[in-house]
């Protein structure tokens, strides 16, 4: 069976390309999901950030960030469980 690779840095010389297999990407993806969820939960849970952004950022952008709060919690919980499952495999 032929290995499928994902090239991360295509701007480097051909002899120095960093390649990642789909299996490696599958192991890292839950941590990206967990990280996104953690960042969104922290950002949407701190009212001081919204107070500071009130005059500097248009209101529709603040509303858009607040709309991502449920997705952040889902990613935080699912990514956390999924990451623990991947850690338990080692």
Describe the model.
The chain is mainly α and 90 residues long. It has a domain at 27-88. It contains four helices and two strands, in the order ββαααα. Strands 1-2 form a two-stranded antiparallel ribbon. The relative contact order is 0.16. The model has no long low-confidence stretch (mean pLDDT 84).
Please give the largest β-sheet: 2 strands, antiparallel
Got a strand count?
2
Helix content: 55-70%
Radius of gyration: 18 Å
Distance between the termini: 24 Å
Task: Quickly give the structural class.
Answer: mainly alpha
Number of helical stretches of at least 4 residues: 4
> How confident overall, as mean pLDDT?
84
**What strand line-up does the widest sheet have?**
1-2
Low-pLDDT runs = none
Order of helices and strands: EEHHHH
Beta-strand percentage range: 5-15%
CA-based shape: elongated
Question: Which features does this protein show?
Answer:
single chain, 90 residues, mainly alpha, 4 helices, 7% strand
Nutshell version of this structure?
With 90 residues, this protein is mainly α.
Break the fold down into its secondary structure elements and pairings.
Layout: E1 5-7, E2 19-21, H1 22-45, H2 47-53, H3 59-67, H4 69-88
Antiparallel strand pairs: 1-2
